[in-house]
Specification:
alpha+beta; four-stranded antiparallel beta sheet; two-stranded antiparallel sheet; elongated
Length: 549
Amino acid sequence: MAYRLGLRLYDRRTGKWHDFRRRKLGEEIVRAVTVAPPGAPDWATDPDELWNRAEGAEKRKDAQVARDYRIPIPFGLSDEQAGDMAEAMARYIADVLTTAVSMGLHRDAEVDALGNVKPKEKQGYHAHLYFPTRKLEQLEGEEGKGEWGLGSKLTMLSNKNSSGAFVEQLNAKWAELANRYMAEHGLTADYDHRSYARQDLPIQPQRTLGQAVTAMERKGFFTRKGAELREDIILPSKLAEAAHAIVLEAQRAQAAADRQREAATKVPQPQPLTTPSPGVIQTTDGEALEWKLVKTVPKAEAAGADAQGSATTAGETGSPFTDFIEGPPGSLLARFREMDEAPEDPKEHAAYNKVLRLVRLVEKVFVSLREWLARFRQHDEARGRRVAAKLEVVYRLDRVRDERDAARTRVQEWEAAHPWRMRAAKARGGDGKPVEWRILNRAVEARQDRIAEMESALASHDRQILVFDQEGFRLGNEHASLMNRLRLLLGGIRNTDEGSVRALFTAAHEDEREWIQAAGVVASVPPQTSGRPDRALTMEPRRRPGAPG
């Protein structure tokens, strides 16, 4: 008792002092009071005298000295208001049982049963109501009734049937007091002592851990019941946070998209892939390359003109092969040089050099295509995640809508079963609806709020998917432009020397071959046959004329 009331009490039976005043000083105990029914002696409200007399009244070793009735205090009440409500409950018990009641109003712990810190608005109060198992009455003496004492046993507390009915009576009184105090202070007064099942509400009650498991969890021990409670509460909460994070991400993306709405809505239209006119085509690195793709020049004339133009260079440098373009080891250009030998005839020198320049530009297109492919895959994965999140919201939205419809049906059924109560509530107006109706209707409103949140999230997903689709369209145009450029470069190589296209295909990596085939310039090339009829291709490096053996 000293622990519950935060007092220093002396136990006459054992001769020990029990001092728990520090609990009251630490504000764990908000109020402690002992009340008694009207006409009771003064000692009945003195905890020290009351509980020592209660101990002395019991002779059996296994006797029950007191009962503890614990009640929660609704959130929102102040220290004084919570104390008044708990004290009112204590006085009710004292009057009904004709016995004294010691009440200790405690502040709730700052952590929940799983050891997590509670938010301030969820840190309320609870009260312990202790009362002896005997009535306060005038005891029979030799000359009739004499002094007051703890007399006859409250046997109804020991009987299962009668004690259950009494607890039901106490619970109903608690609900009445809770609603009265909440209404008096402008708070929601919709408390009901009955279980969800008795109220015919399809709500799954939260699991309870019990005192022993709660103590272990708060000390950091992992328990099976705690794991089950985490699965019911913590895991759905984390999933909700993850879903909310997706919504926030979509909202941020939409905010950025809104700033560029005008530009985003003007989606570029795909351009037809046409072969450009002959002339100068600008490359990605700023080089200018003159292509003669439309006007077909006989290879002999082109070779002769190029040979004439390169003769001066050859004469100036002293070698017809000194101006061949080199490539880094492992590059497409280096692999092509190894697969396709340089011509020994000076007349073919200019045409071969032109092919090398085109191969270098093809390699740059391949680099751009690889960068494009990485961005496309990232875009495709992000869009896939967004679509999956949207489908999850759609699935949950359908379930919540079904729950809302079922909750509306229960409201309608209750109204049909209680027409007179509804008419009386309508006549009173204001907030006079029955508590049962408000609980059922609140279930409908809660699901409607969830539906509104999910519909907002669904619209946000749709907007973000539209942004992904617009970006995907731009990526498609970029890919078409790169493939068009590749097609033109391969066409230039084919027009200059058709055998070089096949050599390029053989030297290319697997992904590069796929792009070459997709360009439509060459369908497939036997890997062991060169495009030049007078040479055979192998995978061994070729030596240039005059190279050391």
